[in-house]
Structures are given as C-alpha cells and as structure tokens.
Amino acid sequence: DGNSVRSSNVLCIDGDSEGNIWIGTDGGGLNIFNKVTGTFSHLKHDDKNSNSLNNDVVFCVTEMDSETSAITYLNSGFDLYNKKTGTFTHHLPEEGNPNSVSGTTILFSFKDSRGKLWLGASAAAGVPGLNMYDPETKRFTRYQNDPADKSSLGGSTCIAMCEDHEGVLWLGTSYGFDGFDRETKKFTRYEHDPKNVNSISEDLIFCVYEDSKYNLWIGTSGGGLNLFNKSAKTFTAFTEKDGLPNNVIYGILEDGKGNLWLSTNKGICEFNPETRKCKNYDITDGLQANEFKFN
Predict the structure, then answer these.
(1) Segment 137-162 mean pLDDT
(2) Cα(84)–Cα(211) distance, rounded to whole angstroms?
(3) Stretch 250-266: mean pLDDT, rounded?
(4) Which of 11, 18, 43, 289 could cross-link to 30 by cystine, CB 3.0-4.6 Å?
(5) What is the DSSP-derived secondary structure letter of residue 126?
(6) Quick one: 10 exposed, middle or buried, by C-beta within 10 A (0-12, 13-18, 19+)?
C-alpha cells in the first residue's frame, strides 16, 4: 500500500515544524505522514541515484530548521536533507580528516539550544564516540573515551542525550552516565559502584530525560529507572521491586499530568513521580507487543 508505512519495524518517530510526522524504519526507509491530507510520502535508497537516502535502515531523524532535517543510519553515516529542494548531503568518515564524522553507524542525533547537532557513533563501525556538527562551519568535533583521562567521554559508545534547563548536556553511554561542560570541554562521569547504593544502578544507559519539574531521569539496561540528584550527585533507583514491569527502560516521556511513560521489555509503565506508583500495560491491554527497543 503506497499510502502507508513501508515497514512494520519502526525505529524512530519525529515531528517537524509543519506538523508532519517522520517515521524511520528498518528496511523501509523514511516515511513522512501529512496529518492534514492523511497521506504518506516516502524516501528510499536507490543504488542508481546518489540523491537518495544513504540507507533504508533509519535510526534517527532530527529537524535542524524549517528546511533541513538530519537523518542517521546503520553503516551509512548521516545525511542532511533539504526538504525544499529535495537534495541530500551525505556525510561519512574521511580517513585522515578529524573534522569529518567519526563513525558510520549513528545511534542518535540531537539538536541543542545553540543549534549544534550531536551524533552518537557506535563502536560497531568506524571510530566510536560523540560528534558535534556545526551547521555554520560544516565541521565536526569529535569526543572520545581516553582511559588515561577521567575528564574524557566515559563510554566508547554514546546512546542517548538530553539538554537540561540550564544548558548542561547529559549523556547515556555504554559505560555510565556523563555530564558535559561545553565551556571547559570536560566530561563528569557517573558509574555504577556495587559498594555505593547511591550510585547509578547500571552502566549501560538507554535514555535520559528531564521532566517539567527539572528532574533528571535515566533509563538503564537492567538497572531500572534512576532519578539523579544534581546537587548531591546521588541516584535513586526504581526497579521491579518498586512496581516496574521490567528493569530495562528504553524510553521516557512525560504526559500533561506529570506522569512518566516508560517503554520496557514487558510493556509500558505509567510512573507517577510524586506517589512513586506504577500502572503497567501489556498486550492484554491492546499493545502490539510487550518488547520495545531503545530507538
């Protein structure tokens, strides 16, 4: 059906400034839904056309401005797509050029309040780490883990990022939770310490989210949900023992009533930050499946 999503495996969803919904899929390219007309348009990879998607496995879509969206891929770097002209600018690692993107598999893209684009490169392909793209200079700055430098990026792979209300960037990595100071270019690492109950409960981080009350929440791979106290530098963990359906948290989203909705390996949880109570939903409530992925 031409007027539908071209793959049932959806990896990301993003809305643009015109009210359209962009849907990245695993193998079906990019699908754009116009809510006014109720129709889909599709962007696909074409081996014979360089002005097409670099890959049909789309991990993330981020609107840069009213004309441009960033699209990230599995094994194909990322593109800048001009919606008005319909043209693509492809970005892949360039050997010997530290001002190019470092990896070919980009797990997330995030636009900050200063208009910079941040990209998390996987260790699976290319050079892992964090990339910052400046649209004005069209250059990349790379940040990577250095075992000899405790103020460098904590994990080799960046999986998630958010910016808090004070402009601080927070990262979920393959080995801990990091805060990044853009002025000093230094990272502060927070790692799990089995001897410290106030440390983060798990080092593999899938999502980071600041709610409307400026609380910072972290979703982990097996350690449940963590609430970070920025002033005390401590963490409070919420797990299955507290009512969560599962300790793997892929995504966090706040609703209009201040509840947090958590996607897990066993359905969705509606978590009330005030009462700390959970209401869980699974396939018996109408979900299409119980397991969700971090994209």
Answers:
(1) 93
(2) 34
(3) 97
(4) 43
(5) B
(6) middle
Distance CA(170)–CA(248), nearest Å, equals 19
With vertex at residue 256, the alpha carbon angle to CA 255 and CA 258, rounded to the nearest 5 degrees, is: 70
Distance, in Å, from the CA atom of 99 to the CA atom of 177, rounded to the nearest integer, reads 26
- The Cβ of residue 196 has, within 10 Å, a number of other Cβ atoms equal to 11
Tens digit of each residue's pLDDT (9 = 90 or more) over 191-235: 999 999 999 999 999 999 999 999 999 999 999 999 999 999 999
Task: Please list, in sequence order, all residues whose beta carbon lies within 8 angstroms of the beta carbon of residue 208, skipping any fewer than 6 positions away.
Answer: 160, 161, 162, 170, 171, 172, 177, 216, 217, 218, 219
**Residues in contact with 147: Cβ distance below 8 Å, sequence separation at least 6, in sequence order:** none
Q: For 103-107, what is the mean pLDDT? A: 91
Q: Using CA atoms of 90, 95, 96, 99 in order, give the dihedral in degrees to the nearest 10.
A: 20
Mean of per-residue pLDDT scores for the chain: 94
For 78, the token pair is: 């990322």
Tell me the C-alpha distance between 191 and 131, whole Å.
22
The 10 Å Cβ neighbour count of residue 97 is 10
pLDDT tens by residue, 171-192: 999 999 999 999 999 999 999 9
Whether the CA torsion 154, 160, 163, 164 is positive or negative: it is negative
Four-residue CA torsion sign, 30, 206, 128, 234: positive
